[in-house]
Amino acid sequence: MERQFEAGLAFAQKKDQQDHMNKIRERFCIQPETIYMDGNSLGMASKDAREALMKVVDLWETEGINIWNIEDNKYFLYQDFLGARLAELINARPDEVTVMTNTTINIHQGISTFYHPTKERYKILVDDINFPTDRYAVDSQVKLKGYEPAEAVKVVASRDGVIDEERVIEAMTDDVALVLLPAVLYRSAQLLDMKRLTEAAHKRNIIIGFDLCHSIGAVDHDFADIQPDFAVWCNYKYLSASPGAIAGFYINQKHFAMEPGLAGWQGNRKDTQFQLKQKHEHAQNAGGWQTGTQPLFSMAPLEGVLKIFEEVGMANIRKKSLDITAYFMYLIDTKLAQYGYSVGNPREDERRGGHICLVHEEAYRICSALKDSGVVPDFREPNVIRLAPIALYTSYEEVYQVVEILEFIAINKKYEKYSSERSMVV
Asked: Which positions bind pyridoxal 5'-phosphate (predicted)?
């Protein structure tokens, strides 16, 4: 898509005046003298999320155990209520999505459900640059089946930090039982062609699942078209549902009759759940993959912030996200390239997620300098500054200001006063 940008501050301010999401920004807790660029790690708090959380706190106080029965059992069925609303963000059926546990446990749930190795088909196919928790879960699952990761985990090597989809498809050989891949790479923001990969896997009778942690809420996925077997994601990044918020889980309706790999009483059919039978009767929907009692305080902020997503619409969010990140790349090329900065993410709209991968050999120390200058970024080894202009609450003027600060840091070598020793959380 051809876009026309200009380098001056006046252009950024004009873009903000034309931005229909400006009023939405007011519903987030913008901090004074701070430019928040880390919404791809932890989304900014919203007033809607806080209001929803405090409502549940108040209900616990006044209703006690009756909280499960009020409002037509809303909170006992909260996972179905929230799952149906999340499904709209990825164009899935309401009963194909639920919320539960965390991303890693949901990966375990997906793999343990679908991974039933045989002598001929026993490998799990992964890439070598996905977020490590996915690989940890995969290795654990193959060990539980009596294999060593070296023999049962098939790793497709990346090229220059990019997953080569052609190589992934070539690796879908007859011994592969399951594929697990990211939708968007956490480091480089590469967006995979999920439909192509899913069709290739299914053509070979291979199960395929995706990790949407770095795409949900930024990319308008169409699961009615893609039709993967399962997917997992966290809800605390672009979706801003609170630190460590409950995670999301999708399972394609064609698998509803399968036995969950990890069974628990909350996954039981609701009409027989309180009969407390010793035999699990799992619900024939995504809720059948639930395990323990749902944590309402972890779920409530998601209800609040989803109001905002529903009002704005994922298509509009994606449109602005692509435009503001393209503007960011334009300013990097125009103002920062001469100081050793470069863009490390794909540039094509259809190949990138919602954050900028800014590369510099002094990335870690520049991150420290940014923090002291009122900018909140994050760092990824060995040389990446991740900057996420979030469509709902980041302004074009803030993007311009960040570029000005990055230029000042480079010209004055302000980063040199900071240590290169890594802190615990970066």
From this structure: 103-104, 131-134, 211, 214, 236, 265, 293
377 is in an annotated binding site: no
Q: Are 215 and 388 in contact (CB under 8 A)?
A: no
How much is the pLDDT for 426?
61
Q: Give the residues of the chain that fall short of pLDDT 50.
A: none
Q: Which of 176, 163, 167 is nearest to 208 (CA)?
A: 176
- What integer pLDDT is reported at residue 424 of this predicted model? 62
Please report the pLDDT score of residue 1 as a whole number. Answer: 66
* Contact present, 271 and 256 (Cβ < 8 Å): no
Helix axis angle, 396-411 relative to 363-372, nearest 10°? 120
393 labeled binding residue: no
So what's the pLDDT on residue 61? 98
DSSP string, 312-329: H-HHHHHHHHHHHHHHHH
pTM of the model: 0.96
* Annotated binding residue 132: yes
Set out the domains of the chain in order of their start, with CATH numbers: 9-30+313-412 (3.90.1150.10), 50-311 (3.40.640.10)
Q: Is 364 annotated as a binding residue?
A: no
Q: Is 37:402 a contact under the CB 8 Å cutoff? A: yes
**198 in a known ligand binding site:** no
The annotation status of 272 as a binding-site residue, yes or no, is no
CA-derived radius of gyration, the chain: 22
Q: Residue 36 annotated as binding?
A: no
- Is 293 labelled as part of a ligand binding site? yes
Buried b (16+ CB within 10 A) or exposed e, 392-408: bbbbbbbbbbbbebbbe
- Asked if residue 81 belongs to a known ligand binding site, the reply is no
Residue 103 annotated in ligand binding: yes
Residues 6+ apart with CB under 8 A from 306: 82, 85, 86, 239
User: What pLDDT score was predicted for residue 274?
Assistant: 92
**Residue 133 among known ligand-binding residues:** yes
pLDDT at 2: 81
